[in-house]
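User: I've been trying to design a sequence by hand for this structure and keep getting stuck. Would you show me what you'd pick, starting by listing the structure so we're on the same page?

Assistant: Good idea, let's start from the same input. This is the structure you sent:
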């Protein structure tokens, strides 16, 4: 009777240990699958019936681009598993090029990121997420594309195609936002740093694609100082009364936020 009881206890202990080990294995699987997955999972682009041919094959028609491409940050992208002449940088963004070449350059057999940003989003997942924020440039809607602001083949992908080597950062924005980026008699010094000091160019939770909400944005440069008797100074000027009616431009004060031709305090 005692031996039978002992055997029963051992069986229960074995079951408990086995269940614990099983739970640990399952937990380890899920933890490993979630915590060790790279931030960006890049799946090679596919074109039905086509295979990769290498950059060298692209040179016959796109000689100038292929010649400049190695100096571009995108020129570092390639598939290490494919040992092809010149690497596979072109096809990393445009997809396998064999059918495109065989058809004499038919555009329907190659992926053009200028028409569809999907190939860009293969790597730039964070940017894709920003385009889904409430306020964003209409890229996912098809009204704009990445190539309008970025030269994917050039040495500086943060400038538009044909942009000057020493051009200021605002050149990309200037193509569409001419009124905001034109010269002013009284400039807003932040414009020297570039539009992205105040705006997130892909998308934002704040209106006008601002990097931060209205009052916090200006205070990043224009420090607010608490004086005696509850007085608030900004730029050595008492702003206590102004702040009660709104922020820097919603209060009707500094409405010419990009620059003014008539007032050094950025007013129209």
């Amino acid at each position: 009777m005692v031996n039978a009881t002992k055997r029963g206890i051992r069986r229960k202990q074995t079951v408990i240990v086995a269940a614990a080990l099983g739970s640990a294995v399952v937990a380890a699987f899920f933890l490993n699958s979630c915590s060790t997955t790279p931030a960006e999972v890049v799946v090679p682009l596919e074109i039905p019936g086509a295979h990769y041919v290498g950059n060298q094959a692209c040179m016959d028609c796109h000689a100038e681009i292929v010649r400049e491409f190695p100096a571009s940050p995108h020129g570092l992208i390639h598939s290490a598993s494919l040992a092809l002449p010149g690497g596979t940088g072109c096809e990393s963004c445009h997809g396998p090029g064999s059918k495109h070449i065989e058809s004499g350059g038919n555009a329907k057999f190659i992926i053009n990121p200028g028409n569809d940003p999907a190939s860009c989003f293969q790597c730039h997942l964070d940017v894709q997420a920003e385009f889904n924020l409430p306020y964003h440039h209409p890229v996912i809607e098809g009204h704009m594309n990445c190539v309008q602001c970025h030269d994917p083949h050039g040495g500086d992908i943060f400038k538009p195609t044909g942009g000057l080597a020493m051009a200021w950062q605002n050149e990309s924005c200037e193509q569409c936002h001419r009124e905001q980026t034109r010269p002013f008699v009284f400039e807003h010094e932040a414009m020297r740093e570039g539009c992205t000091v105040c705006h997130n160019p892909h998308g934002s939770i704040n209106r006008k694609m601002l990097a931060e909400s209205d009052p916090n944005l200006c205070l990043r440069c224009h420090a607010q100082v608490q004086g005696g008797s509850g007085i608030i100074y900004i730029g050595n000027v008492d702003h206590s009364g102004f702040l009660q009616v709104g922020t820097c431009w919603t209060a009707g004060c500094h409405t010419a936020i990009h620059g003014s031709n008539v007032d050094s305090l950025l007013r129209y």
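That's my pick for every position. To get oriented when you compare it with your attempt: The radius of gyration is 29 Å. The mean pLDDT is 79.
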